[in-house]
Amino acid sequence: MSPETSDRKDDHIEIILEEDVETARSGFDDVQLIHEALPELHREGIDTCVELCGRELSSPIVIESMTGGHPNTTEINRSLSAAAERTGIAMGVGSQRAGLESDDEELLESFTVVREAAPDAFIYGNIGAAQLSEYGVEGVERAVEMIDADAMAIHLNFLQEAAQPEGDVDARGCLSAIEAVADGLSVPVIVKETGSGISRGTARKLSDAGVDAIDVAGKGGTTWSGVEAYRAAAVGDRRRARVGTRFREWGIPTAVSTLEVAREHSCVVASGGVRSGLDIAKAIALGARAGGLAKPFLGPARDGTDAVVELIEDLEAELQTAMFATGSSSVADLQEAEYALLGRTRQFLKG
Q1: Would you state the pLDDT for residue 7?
Q2: Looking at CB atoms within 10 Å, which of 17, 146, 163, 236 has the fewest?
Q3: 242 is in an annotated binding site
Q4: Which helix (H) or strand (E) holds 303?
């Protein structure tokens, strides 16, 4: 296998940690949950459990797909998955393309370590929509088997690919390929964006294709076109560096995408600029089943499992407080909580 797929994964981690690749305006600042002065419940009795793709999570928190595919990422994935195991939340791995292309044991361990460290956690795999025509259902099953996955995410990252020096920009036939995988795979299928959001129309197509969940991964967190701009500049690809920089702010804000996608599908994960338990609460009030974070977990993962667990517990405390202050004794109650939309988010939705 060419080492470029594996090396790209290592590049991504270093750029995310060291460079300015954050966008603003996820829309959560424009979502105001309505305070309930008489919640009539005990905070300690609040139930944060939620069902996701047939599995029960202790909290509606997802460690979003980030990494794997390079030996340098093994310990990161070990920390993340061990924390998911200890806290009962979900975790996704990064794209498994490198693992499917290689028989290098050290590289494969960056993925297999996840199930070893988290035998009972909800773990989902990850493959790009652009690779489905190459792998087919059988190839995606190999990715499932690699980590004994409970579900498989298919990621949509065509804006990133357009800015990537070695990007795959052939998006033809992806919807039919997703439908075939959703119909034939042994585990549930999640379709996720990678920072640009999903529109209501696209959500309707995915729902019709039979996918089990949609992760909106909207604008407001890490900008992958921005990440690729740094990589393109480093290899002297001026044009793609320019494209990546130009499209840093492209996309549908996460709050908007969450609200729109929830009108078309019953199982929505909100990610993209989610930075707190309060953001998760707002996303659930907008119709999400859970909220996902990626970059905020990366630094703690380098420090070890305990640091990741501490962050998860902070998120849970903030989420429970938001539930208490809205009189929500369960996630289902929080989905019905009152909220007001303000500012740019309200304008975006009004068109």
Answers
A1: 60
A2: 236
A3: no
A4: helix 295-303
Is residue 275 annotated as involved in ligand binding? yes
Annotated domain spans of the chain: 3-349
Give the integer Cα–Cα distance in Å for 293 and 332: 21
pLDDT at 181 over 90: yes
Q: Is 32 assigned a ligand-binding role in the annotation? A: no
Whether 17 shows a pLDDT value over 90: the answer reads no
Does 67 carry a binding-site annotation?
yes
The partner residues of 152 in beta bridges, in order of sequence, read 125, 189
- Average of per-residue pLDDT values in the chain: 94
Q: What is the pTM of this model?
A: 0.95
Place 315 in a pLDDT band, splitting at 50, 70 and 90: very high
Do the annotations mark residue 65 as ligand-binding? yes
pLDDT for res 68: 86
- 199 belongs to an annotated ligand binding site: no
What pLDDT band is residue 11 in, cutting at 50, 70 and 90?
A: confident
Q: What is the mean pLDDT of residues 128-156?
A: 97
66 is an annotated ligand-binding site residue: yes
Largest pairwise CA distance in the chain: 62
279 and 27 Cβ atoms separated by less than 8 Å: no
Taking the C-alpha atoms of residue 344 and residue 322, their distance in angstroms, rounded to an integer, is 23
Is the pLDDT at 136 greater than 90? The verdict is: yes
For residue 200, give Cα distances in angstroms to 31, 256, 258, 260. Answer: 19, 10, 9, 5
Pick the CATH number of 3-349 from 3.40.50.300, 3.40.50.10380, 3.20.20.70, 3.30.70.920: 3.20.20.70
Dig out the tokens for 278 from the structure.
Answer: 């309060």
Gap between the Cα atoms of 295 and 245, Å rounded = 20
Any known ligand binding at 335? no
CB 120 within 8 A of CB 32: no
